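Hi everyone, sorry if this is the wrong subforum. Our group has a chain we'd like a structural model of before ordering constructs, and none of us has done structure prediction before. Sequence below.
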Amino acid sequence: MHYKKNIIVTILFLLFQLADSTAKPFNHASNGRETIPFNKDWQFYFAYNFEQGIKKETVNLPHTWNAMEVLKGVPDYNRTSAIYENKLHVLPAWAGKRLFLYFEGANSVAMVFVNNKSVGTHKGGYTAFAIEITDAVKSGENKITVQVSNAYRLDVLPLHGDFNIYGGIHRPVSLILTDKNCISPLDYGSSGVYLKQKQVSKDSAEIEVFTKLSLSDDQALSLRSTLLDGNKKVVATLTSKIEKGNPQELSQSIKLSNPHLWNGKADPYLYEVRVELLQNGQVIDQLSQPLGLRYFSVDPDKGFFLNGKYLDLYGAGRHEDVSAKGSALTDEDHDRDMELMKELGATAARLTHYPHSKHFYELCDRNGIVLWSEIPFVGPGGYTGTGYVKDAELETNIKQMLKELIRQNYNHPSVCFWGLFNELKLNYDDPQPFIKELNALAKEEDPDRLTTLASNLGSNSFTDLTDLMGWNQYFGWYGGKFEQVGAWADETHAAVPGKPISISEYGAGGSPFKHTEGLIRPEAKGNFHPEEWQTAFHEKHWEELKKRPFLWGKFIWVLADFGSAIRTEGDANGINDKGLVTYDRKIKKDAFYFYKANWNPEPMVYIAERRNTNRTKASTAVKIYSTVATAELWVNGKRIGKKAKNGLNTMIWENVQLSKGNNDILVKTKFKGKELSDSCVWTLQ
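Answer:
Right subforum, don't worry. Here is the predicted structure as tokens:
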């Protein structure tokens, strides 16, 4: 077991010391903090319905009012204000407790009222916030009202973007009860505990446990931090006395020899740090945070290194958006997307274009997915408009969002990159001076992670603003040819020597219901997006990108189709169809299986173009993707022959003859004595 390693614990702290490095079960004592879900039976109605007796809809959270209407494919979906109401019954046993409402996300501006009195406002739909309601509630029944608006405004991000701004309380809500002295829930929606990895190597690690406190007195208070290994065994415990004077923060430091490192997918090992506030030796507050010890770097010529070893970062961008649900996703929805990423074989993900659900960050920690996480500072892409105006209120909002992004996700080892913007333009107010301020703020908040951006301009723009760069490129979709991506990468690498570069988006639209026999280039803004062109796009792009390790990240656009009301293309208006998976997650397109064959070593075989069932040409090619070295093709029970896979884990039989009517296509192979096969039926007209 890993906890039996020879681990030497040296404990440094500011005030008072108590150390215990003996491995033993953790004592799960009552921690004084209660977190109660507050998601059921909310009354919902639009804010313009003020007359008495208005009919209200009962909804459960998470909820958005746009989920169904955006499926109509019209750009003028309901960006307005709505009301959520609920009853909170305050128990007599809660006397002397502090009460906080914790919102994981309300899009995009939320005003909270208790018994018709305002208690707080939050601007920003994708980050959490907590509001203390202790002095606003009474014993017994209390009315909680939340007015939420997703209306367009120039002082709240995003100003633009190729995705829907779903209105509503679209993430869970909870009620937090604490003692009068507690670990603060009010530090930009964060846990209040920051695990700062001061120095990490395979030989040793130094971790600063920095805790924000909210104290009403300082009588006999102390703070205990406990480090547990992956088996929940205590590795170290330290206790610091809280001196008089109501300090609002406290630092404790742990030095660890021979740490078990968090090593991405290969070994996503997690420690846990439990922080307890004690009064007279009794626990009055407690919370736990994940600790994944790792170190990383990016070399402009060699790429990304995790714990001193090269790691090829590849994966996809992801939107929190599912057909008929919008952004009001459950944990099961997030779990499903993680399973798709794991099946794909991704090592990384770009969480676009805003902070994602807390649950998804936890999934990435546990599954070893390296993350680029960003704020919704988004330009218009290929459309008109701007993502930035030089306005003091907007800039304050952007800085608030960046602080919230960093502080709320500070302890997630999966996060290695903070994204500052996506596809801003230079023909409106120049955002560059402000972006430099943002970069400085990110470094002040978190000196250890790297900053990046995603541009769709040339190599002479935005190159001196962040640690790293990303470019969104679509050769063979919005112009150009597939083959140009390799030359672009080489030319850009040469144009910005010393600057690590990535391809932050690349993709093409594709419908699993539209097909061609042979490649026919579609119009990007047209309605005909055949699956075959999307597949060819990805085959050629990956062939070029895989040869260039200096690209520190390679991010497909996008994991799954998503809603974008401004789009009028593909099978249906209002959808960006560049996903490897359909909007409802029910169909994995051919390109998904191409990447699975190249990224996931598990044995598999898959017949491409299987959904192109109605054929007009008797002579055709049969293409399969496989991780197994060779496979045999059979047509209508006749063995056609054996092929070996090429460098893209692809096998192609040319000039295969089909018969009139139905044709049974079968491919067979073996892996370690186990037979693998795939089949489909093609009909020759």
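For your construct planning: Residues 392-408 form the longest helix (17 residues). The two ends are 63 Å apart (CA to CA).
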